[in-house]
Give the backbone structure.
Amino acid sequence: MNEIMTENTTMKIQTVAYSRLAEVDFNHIPFGKVFTDHMFQADYYDGAWRDPRIEPFGNLSLSPAISSLHYGQSIFEGMKANRDSEGNALLFRADMNFKRINNSCRRMAIPELPESFFMDGLKTLIKLDKNWIPTSEGSALYLRPFVFATMEHVGVKTADRFKFVIIASPVGPYYGHTVRVKVADHYVRAFRGGTGFAKAAGNYGATLLPMEEAHKEGYDQILWLDGYHFEYIHEIGTMNVFFQVGDTVLTPSTDSGEILPGVTRNSAIQLLKDNGYRVEDRQVKISEIIEAAENNNLKDAFGTGTAAAIAQISSIGYKGKDYILPPVSERSVSNFLKRNLIGIRTGEVADPYGWVEKI
Ligand SMILES: Cc1ncc(COP(=O)(O)O)c(C=O)c1O
């Protein structure tokens, strides 16, 4: 066991005696099922986050009474590290994920994480498991920080013990194809005053049944709407959404707190605006998108997210009819973002914003 001083934290590091790296077939990696040699952990007790440490990846031993299992006090983040041509690990806008994880913590009554635990945990783990970062096109090391209540108490009450863990998983492309979305017609993902803006575990659990039903109908994802009017567009599963209507790029505003403010969304808006595209970040009605599709004025539609990067939408199912989008070769906005946003993340395109950090 080593004890190291990282930038800001004293961290115990126990490395594996034997790496599993050679056992992984990097040409066929299923998303989120293969994990690197190590994981980061810290615990909250007696009023503070304590004991930051890195250990071999392995099972956790926990009481069946821990409150997160019963009441869902559990949140997470998702981010990716890439490797550039010189072998450096590249991390994309981790400061935004840090802010967002603490916004999620606040909403779920979880004590906020110290920046040093989040950043040093992430970077130390990436450095240790750097050789696990895949380099083929569309692949990356997916990083999953998460926090959950570990108080042993069956009673609806804010917990006083929590665990913060970061695990890492080499992944290939999320979608190898365009996506068919179905507009939600009776299920709702988020509502005013709820937890839509947070990466709360329960937000995702509640979408699994609707997703299964949509899959049976031949769709890949659901395009969620607001739950009052079934009119204002929110987002897609694990992605924010953009549409090009005529010359204007539209994306639903996150102001109402019902939509997750995506790091990819924020980066896409900035890149588009800086490159002369007209972007409107405002409430977007499904009726205006359908009307544009009927008038052949819907030029592009795509989801943005860490996992999928830019996922081009091939059709939108609404009230029993499928609206087909133009072929991907004709999509100027999403193809521009695929080249430039993914390029910045992977180090192939110059980063004028300082978004990418070499680890
Ligand atoms: C519900 C939801 N919306 C949008 C996104 C996209 O966010 P980001 O670009 O930060 O990955 C995600 C993924 O994190 C998500 O889970």
In short: The CA atoms of residues 19 and 168 lie 14 Å apart. The domain at 2-171 is CATH 3.30.470.10 (D-amino Acid Aminotransferase; Chain A, domain 1).
